[in-house]
Design a protein that fits this description.
Elements: H1 5-23, E1 39-46, H2 60-78, E2 81-87, E3 91-98, H3 103-122, E4 135-137, H4 142-158, E5 181-185, E6 200-204, H5 216-240, H6 247-252, H7 278-303, E7 309-310, H8 316-320, E8 324-325
């Protein structure tokens, strides 16, 4: 697909704006971000070159079981609570809560297991995940978190792949109720039967910590109704544009080495906070800037050999360099 001059110029303008914003920063650049316990995230990761390594293909049950097994095993190992998950052909979305502050090792193990298993299944030996890195966003309130769940589950419909989210042949929690537990078998040929991996792994879909006035069934019904509204809206848009959904039959013929052809903006800033309210987003970003300033000051003092206490949520230096970290106040 040819890229227009306007798009090239827009990309150049974004890079210039990003550089200017970095130069105006009052403290040294900080790549770290706080990893605090009991934080909810939307975790997204894309495949290398937007290739469809996760495509369900003609044997969707195999890849569904494989992904479900890896997700169940790693979630149990690190205590991660899964609220919604959809594995698209070239990326995934997982909405979760991290009670113990183990988001980083959970992602490392989950992505590693998926990559090695996909390579074994596809006969590959190279990278599976894009070098752009992950995108983990936080939501500031219940309504925003709820919208995120709807977006995750309806993603196959929004992409024009299936008419209803529950028809997506890949891994999805579209038809799971909160509190429902499903069991996945250890995939044959991918793990040593005499190794440490269990023969079976179970995954329970945990309700997100939102709308405490609703019980699990009421929250599920609210979510299902919102997803259906989105599905009907997308279907109406497709009819207006004379477009058709790909459907399960065509999806079965989708080759895993294909590249997604839709246009994707490049050189954009990976979001850390997402909210429809500008003021909520700015407030959270300001809190993040304050954390980065404290982190930068502590790091500068630490590198000079002076006593330093890093802000709560410091992960890498605490784990690998043993720095002192402030206690996270109870929520």
């Amino acid at each position: 697909m040819a890229i227009s001059s306007a798009r090239k110029q827009a990309s150049s303008d974004r890079r210039a704006a990003n550089r200017a914003r970095g130069q105006a920063r009052p403290h040294a650049r900080v790549r770290a971000r706080p990893i605090l316990p009991s934080t909810s995230y939307k975790v997204t990761r894309r495949c290398l070159e937007r290739r469809m390594f996760l495509a369900p293909g003609r044997a969707p049950d195999e890849i569904v079981n494989f992904i479900g097994y890896c997700l169940a095993y790693t979630a149990a190992k690190f205590g991660v609570q899964i609220h919604a998950a959809v594995m698209m052909s070239d990326h995934y979305h997982i909405d979760l809560t991290d009670p113990r502050g183990d988001l980083v090792p959970w992602k490392q193990l989950f992505n590693s297991l998926i990559a090695r298993g996909i390579n074994a299944q596809r006969g590959r030996f190279d990278s599976v995940w894009s070098g752009d890195g992950p995108c983990d966003t936080c939501r500031p309130n219940d309504d925003e978190t709820f919208k995120d769940l709807v977006y995750t589950i309806a993603n196959p419909v929004d992409a024009g792949l299936v008419k209803w989210a529950r028809l997506w042949p890949g891994f999805t929690t579209a038809d799971w109720r909160f509190g429902e537990t499903r069991t996945f078998k250890r995939p044959e040929g991918l793990f040593d039967p005499d190794g440490n991996m269990p023969e079976k792994a179970t995954l329970t879909l945990v309700r997100p910590p939102i709308f405490s006035e609703l019980d699990d069934d009421a929250l599920y019904d609210k979510l299902a109704a919102a997803v259906r509204d989105v599905e009907l809206e997308i279907q109406a848009d497709f009819r207006a544009q004379s477009r058709r959904f790909m459907g399960p039959r065509k999806l079965a013929r989708q080759h895993w080495n294909r590249v997604a052809m839709s246009f994707e903006e490049r050189f954009t800033v990976a979001p850390k906070v997402a909210a429809s309210s500008v003021w909520r987003r700015l407030a959270q970003l300001q809190r993040d800037r304050d954390w980065e300033r404290k982190y930068a000051e502590a790091r500068a003092a630490w590198r000079m050999g002076k006593p330093a206490v890093f802000p709560a949520g410091t992960y890498w230096l605490r784990r690998f360099a043993g720095v002192s970290v402030a206690q996270h106040p109870p929520s």
